[in-house]
Design goal:
Elements: H1 2-22, E1 44-47, E2 61-63, E3 67-70, E4 77-86, H2 89-92, E5 93-95, E6 102-104, E7 112-116, E8 127-130, E9 144-147, H3 153-160, E10 169-178, H4 185-196
Antiparallel strand pairs: 1-3, 2-9, 3-8, 4-7, 4-10, 5-9, 6-7
């Protein structure tokens, strides 16, 4: 009887091992792949080193170097400048936009807007884009303004009684927007105006 019990236990043990052996699977795993999503960056600055207050003397030419700086590692971008004249500026002061750098935006008819010719391409270093033409005069840095020599004494006397807010003004504003997923400069300017509305 003992032999029968031991025989039965041996059969049960073989069956358990056989059943357990059929439950073993080939198995492997991997490390986790983490996808992190961050935003790109478009970063610009507008600055001048020649100051913002000028005394007008008829016939004088003065250095004026406004520039747009696109920070390194900004995304490919459309870059724009808006030129704003106030208080009859063109009667007193002449200037020229550097057309080697900027192109007038023909589709904008209400504002004086220029875009960076060729657009900004991502770069490790900051990139400077001067706004005004200097006509190659090394003493004028990267731009100039010229006071008209046709100003009359009557015009000068009329300005002398005015506040700073009423004096002729030349202002600039810069804008930039990503280039990816925007078809062209006109679409880019439309997107900027929509964002500002």
């Amino acid at each position: 009887m003992k032999k029968k019990i031991l025989g039965a236990l041996a059969i049960v043990l073989v069956l358990c091992v056989a059943v357990g052996g059929t439950l073993a699977y080939l198995f492997d795993t991997t490390d986790v792949v983490v996808n992190t999503f961050t935003f790109g960056n478009v970063d610009i600055d507008l600055s001048e080193t020649t100051g913002t207050n000028y005394k007008m003397v008829p016939g004088d030419t003065m250095a004026k170097d406004p520039k747009v700086t696109v920070s390194g590692n900004s995304e490919d971008s459309y870059v724009f400048i808006e030129v704003i004249e106030a208080n009859d500026l063109d009667t007193y002061v002449q200037y020229a936009i550097d057309t080697g750098v900027w192109t007038k935006l023909a589709s904008e008819t209400e504002k004086e807007v220029y875009y960076l010719t060729g657009n900004y391409t991502s770069n490790v270093a900051d990139q400077d884009y001067y706004i005004l033409a200097g006509e190659g005069d090394a003493n004028l840095k990267n731009g100039k303004v010229t006071v008209s020599n046709a100003i009359t004494k009557t015009q000068i006397d009329a300005l002398n009684g005015k506040s700073n807010e009423e004096m002729p003004k030349l202002s600039f504003k810069a804008y930039a927007i990503q280039k990816d997923n925007i078809a062209d400069v006109d679409a880019a300017w439309t997107a900027i105006e929509a964002a500002l509305a």
